[in-house]
Design a protein that fits this description.
heterodimer; A: about 600 residues; alpha+beta; Cytochrome-c3 Hydrogenase, chain B; three-stranded antiparallel sheet; about 10% strand; globular; B: about 350 residues; alpha/beta; Rossmann fold; Cytochrome-c3 Hydrogenase, Chain A, domain 2; 2 domains; five-stranded parallel sheet; 19 helices; about 45% helix; disordered C terminus
Chain lengths: ~600, ~350
Amino acid sequence: MTTAQRVVVDPITRIEGHLRIEAETDADGKITSAYSAGTMVRGIEIILRGRDPRDAWAFAQRICGVCTLVHGIASVRSVEDALHRAIPSYSIPANAELIRNLMIAAQFVHDHVMHFYHLHALDWVDVVSALKADPKATSALAQSISGYSKSSPGYFADAQKKVKTFVEQGQLGIFANAYWGHPAYKLPPEANLMAVAHYLDALAWQRDVVKLHAIFGGKNPHPNFVVGGVPSAISVQSGTGSGKGPYHRGGQDATALNMVGLQTVANVIKQMREFVDQVYVPDTLAIAGFYKDWAGRGEGLGNFLSFGDLPAKGFWDPDSYLIPRGIILNRDLSTIHPIDLDADNEIQEYVSHSWYTYSEGDAQGLHPFRGETELNYTGPKPPYEHLDVAQKYSWLKSPRWKGHAMEVGPLARVLMMVAKGDKQAKELVDLTLKTLDVPVDALYSTLGRTAARTLETKILADAMQGWFDQLLANIKAGDVRTFNDQYWDPSTWPKHMQGVGLMEAPRGGLSHWIVIDDARISNYQAVVPSTWNAGPRDANGQPGAYEAALQDNHVMHDPKQPIEILRTIHSFDPCIACAVHVTDPDGEELVQVKIK
Amino acid sequence: MQGPLIDTLARQGVTRRTFLKYCATLASMMALPPSAGRAMAEAMAAARRPSVIWLPFQECTGCTESITRSHSPTLEGMIFDMISLDYQVTIMAAAGHQAEEALRNAMLENDGKYLLVVDGSIPMGDPGYGTHGGHSFVDHLQQAAKGAAAIIAVGTCASYGGIPKANPNPTGAVSVSDIIKDKPIVNIPGCPPIPVVMTGVLAHYLTFGSLPELDAKGRPKAFFGETIHDRCYRRPFYDQGKFAKTFDDEGARRGWCLFELGCKGPVTYNACATVKWNGGTSWPVESGHGCLGCSEPDFWDAGGFYKALSVPADPLKLAAAAAVVGAGAGVAVSFANRAKKGAAKKAHQPITLADLEK
């Protein structure tokens, strides 16, 4: 039916950033080997060198505008960790931890819902088929799986009319030239229409729920942070100053974090929980039911890493985290291996297949604190047809833990929670397996990864209420501290410090490693989720998580229509701008070209 | 006024009045004369939606994310009713060859007419620093620019080089206008830009077939005519000399001026203080952090986000100090713009629905 060939998908769309996949298929269309390449570099960590560590968060945050706060938080934590290592009494106020937890969880909920509906759904949902649906039957379907209020026949008829008018006008825009009608689409027209309606609904919902970030961080994308706490001063006490008008007096309502702002936050939490419970979770289960064959492919590595996050007792007490820290090897949930962050032989990055050069040879791995990188593009001169995958072929490095390639992200976190005995996680996983009538092994798959993302969204959305209640209780009790100004002034810092800012980003474990000398950054390394997942092969030829997953049981119906590749790659939710990071410990000036 | 758009909107439950009101608000926000609102409404009701092609280069997708946060018009509203978004890799369904074919088709079918939107800077150090479908970014940009009627550079990276260009500019990053010299270009800086500024410029273009009036840095005057400081609600505290000294002292909680904590509001031209963010919820200063100056060229290298500008309130000295921090080139020009905008405002009649329905 077909011959062995090299399939190239570039650009991979509906992701963040610039990703290219090359895959080799055999005569049956089965993928025999796959290669993942990041094709864009900016060099943000070179840019960070020599700067004020307190400024680093703003630079680091621009690594990615999708998971928009994660690099900001990891960055301020890295500086705070450096201070804490040097001065053990150093910490940040409880309110700041609560506000950060709320902002992190809000990012997860927002990001995961958008990923499901706007980035991943079109791999499973046929928009054109939705035109054939009966709105009444769609309404019955929707009401059978959820109590969501928008489920009348009229609601679905409106959504269908909107799409129909659009299609009839003949300008398909973002829906043009896609894979509609491909036999891989299995949903009945009514399920397609329901998903299309929720695609539109989720777009409106996401605009509203980011208001939580606007209250605490001033805007979204790219809310503001500050080393030592959060910048949003709490302004709920009455003003006592002089002058005219409420703002002139100051006090109550003077900042966004006033009673109105707190009410906005409370409303957002409610909106998030409603949408997750009534739309996202039921849709995931309903759609997954038609794609159970995808529980049998796309596993990848079977090794999982989580740095953990969402502390109850502060960043330096990992045992208090909602998402636990640890390593799972070969699907063995009975043993959680600890991570020694400072051990030279645990977390390492390789560049054997990446466009960088190490001073002492490209075969070794380097711990991030002594990480080094020099840009060295040796790929084909553009325009090119194929990358030479036997050589270097990506701007991503290959992080490893004790030499093992690891998967990070929702599946790693849910497994870690289950392994640690988290009751809610276990119940949700059991319920999902039971509803879909699939065995436990189904978790280790493309479908399992996508389902895990939905389940953790519910866990985090539910947890938000608790942090918010605690924040209110603190304020009521008179604790309005949000910032630690001790050691704000870099002249009070020790001459040499280093720290690591860890967190769980929506796409997985994130770590920022900072070395500070004379109050300036001397080395900055970001080892990020999509580098773990999307990185190329290492010195031993071990593939990264994307590559391994594509090599697990993927037969392409038509190699010209890469929908199978998109399904599994999207199940990881790629974020490639995050994954490409560059440092240059020698501060060597690189080529600069000016265009006249 | 009639047309497919109005019919479509009517079917979707959007009344003619709501639509006109939106156009009036937009026109008013952009300080356009009353007739502009009606012209906008008519242009946007045109039969064939103009093609928009969006190319990403050295970017973080923050600009795309920002436009999805637009409340009025919404992104989906624009896609369904105003523009034909023919290439946008973050949200388009097709990938790989199918995506590239969609791009080629859109460029051919709309040759000379499409609007090109660019986010991200372009690396000139080595073509391998950025490729897309195997082609270098600069090649991609030059090819797509040829048939474009105009280019909108969204975000500080596409407008001025942005963070990739920050010292020492490891990849040789440049802006769109550094490369393309023969097309009308509008810069919409901001990291990211305010959504309504992006949609407002698009609406202006759809209406008049031209770009709005720009300042010396290529920015629409309507949104970049005044500094953050000029319109800041905390300005009275600055004038009274009341400054927050840390992020949670009594002054911070009372909303005192953030000048001493490094606010770059006095040297930053943008609309955050008036339009605010996320449906008017808040904006950076209201949430306690000084302005980073993110819509100014080279703000990344302007001396540190927590270092106070060494300036008094005197505008002349302000301009001098701005030059010191490196963000002030063109400040004098912008002052002139402000005067112009002030005059436009004086001449500006409020637009009513009755005007539009005439």
